[in-house]
Amino acid sequence: MARGANQKRKLPILAKLLLERSDEDHMVSREEMQEELARWGVSAERKSIYDDMEQLRELGLDVQSRRGRGGGWYIGERDFQLAELKLLVDAVQSSRFLTRRKSEALIRKLEGLTSVHQARQLQRQVYVDRRIKTMNESIFYNVDRLQGAIAANRVVTFRYFEYNARRERVFRREGARYQITPYGLIWDSENYYLAGWDELRREVRHYRVDKMADINVTTMKGHPRGGWTAEGYARKHFGMFSGAPCQLRLRCENRLAGVVIDRFGVEVSLIPDGGEHFTATVDLVVSPPLWGWLFGLGPGVEVLGPDWAVEEFADRLERAAEMYRSRFSRQETEEDAPEEGKEE
């Protein structure tokens, strides 16, 4: 290869060397640069290296230098700082949505965004209590396919399944395909959900992406979404459970103000009710996770309305209490019964 052709490769080689092997704690010396260039058949004089570093700066690389013993050149600011990459690695590694293999592949790509020295710090192990990685590799690509359908406002079709006690897939609607206008993707309770207009139900519903099979993006134009927003929809659904929508009125102790704001946002209206309480009215969907959340708050919160919601909550509490009362009653009866073959 002609010398001139080799020289055209000089700047890319030096840029790659700096990006891969340098950071604030690890310099690349002039001698190391000359050795790397020689490996590629490129000659470089001492003075030309300084000119090359200046050209790389002009091209947008943050090339810094340090004089003295152990000095040399290194990349300063990068697109992602090490602390940012650590956060991304932790998020990828702990995500239930990603398979173990996909997590490892993404982390290797993230390691390529910093030096080989700092990449070692990204080989972290994040422990998340009882975290189970998904086994469905296709979900990663299904999300991308659905995002494209949302952007193009195209109807998607798919089959939807649940697992039975034998861990077998059981398709809903006897395996018939759902026809949905996708409005948005929602991340909730460590799962991805697709929310959109269901042509059969004639309403907005949502579906777990990892339970969607055989997704197909059609050429049909989607149903208008009006003022629908993913944020508003997700806020109304506890744990992404479906149920009856309502304006739930709550009376809470003042100490629970932060809990209510964390769940419904800072714009929720908290109206003082005496010196120790406040009331709040929130638009949401009544579902079992909602009742569980309210039960967890104990006597510090009271459901004021609507009446049917108050009755439903009271009925659920009564049925749960009756189940345990019956259990304790049976235990007491068994303990009081005489042993077989013995007289009292």
Quick tags:
12 helices; single chain; alpha+beta; 344 residues
Explained architecture:
The protein is an alpha+beta fold and 344 residues long. It has twelve helices and twelve strands. The strands form three sheets. Strands 3, 4, 5, 6, 7 and 8 form a six-stranded antiparallel β-sheet that branches. A hairpin with a 5-residue loop joins strand 3 (154-163) and strand 4 (169-171). Helix 2 (10-21) packs across helix 4 and helix 5 (82-94) runs antiparallel to helix 6 (100-111). The radius of gyration is 31 Å and the shape is elongated.
Q: On the 0-100 scale, what is the average pLDDT? A: 85
- Through-space gap between termini: 107 Å
Q: Structural class, from secondary structure content?
A: alpha+beta
Number of helical segments?
Answer: 12
Helical content (DSSP H or I, runs of 4+): 25-40%
Largest sheet: 6 strands, antiparallel
Q: Approximately what portion of the residues adopt beta-strand conformation?
A: 15-25%
Could you list the spans in which at least 5 consecutive residues all have pLDDT below 50?
none
> How many DSSP E strands?
12
Pattern of helices and strands? HHHHEEHHHHEEEEEEHEHEEHEH
Shape: elongated
What would you report as the Rg, rounded to the nearest angstrom?
31 Å
